[in-house]
Amino acid sequence: MASLSIIVGIIGNIISILVFASPIETFWQVVRQKSTGNYNGIPYITTLLSTSLWTFYGVIKPKGFLIFTVNGAGAIFQFIYIILFLAYAPKDKKVQTGMMVATLNFGFVGSVIAISLLAIPESVRLTVVGILCAVLTIGMYASPLSAMRTVITTNSVKSMPFLLSFFLFLNAGIWSVYSLLIKDFFIGVPNSIGFVLGSAQLILYAIYKNKSISAKSTEEMEDRSTRGLVKGMIEMRGLEDDEEAGLKNRSGLHKGRSLPKPSVNGQNSFQRILKTLSLTPYEIHSNNWQYNHENDIEIGAKKITSDY
């Protein structure tokens, strides 16, 4: 039984480290762009808080070496992420994040360790720290509930990446098994809750994945129809302009006048519609272009109509 728990614990270490390493790509982009953009530092602060306390729990727990190693590695990952965030964040975010780090990751964690070692009897010390760690872990596993609600309301799985949900599911499952083998209630309860929530995420993903694909296909068909309609309007307008210009040219030549100048409104509407046709599919679906795209088509169509 002891050897089985060690094997399961090692597997749990590997999976947890993969989860901790998942933001590396995000921070690689932050370093390349030298900006944190719209990213928030709170998830890394709370994860550092959780892993730091679990590391302490692994230190004071007999035979808690595997708990210490995985959470110690996680704390190192989160600390590096926070340093990078502070290095490239705007001044206001930098100050806010720095204050939270000082309060939670140094002040709170330091207070818990000091009080546990100096004021709490050794007989109940592990219980107090274990309860605190379990509560924080339950909060961490409950955080994807907002993403699950978004999936249901939008019929889209964009807000819930599959790989992250899958690895969190595996992580909670393997540590639930480990807790049964070593009979640790504080590890078992939060990870069992995480396993249930992870299963729910995967079920939601399976249900709404096809709906997301169908919605995307519908949007693409609507975009193609809209672009085809605008293109047809431009071609019709071009033919009519050519006919009108030919008549005016013949009339102008007979009367000895110069060639007519094109309408400014016609030029502007034509340029606006051409601008929409030059967009790539990515730009058409982006939030920044969507409002301007619709306005350009509406304004161009109105101006073409008014030119008659």
Automatic annotation (TrEMBL):
Keywords annotated in UniProt: Membrane, Repeat, Sugar transport, Transmembrane, Transmembrane helix, Transport
Single GO BP term: protein homooligomerization
A cellular component annotation (GO) from this entry: endomembrane system
Entry-linked Pfam families: MtN3_slv
Region (Disordered): 245-266
PANTHER family: BIDIRECTIONAL SUGAR TRANSPORTER SWEET16 (PTHR10791:SF142), RAG1-ACTIVATING PROTEIN 1 (PTHR10791)
Protein name: Bidirectional sugar transporter SWEET
Organism: Morella rubra (Chinese bayberry)
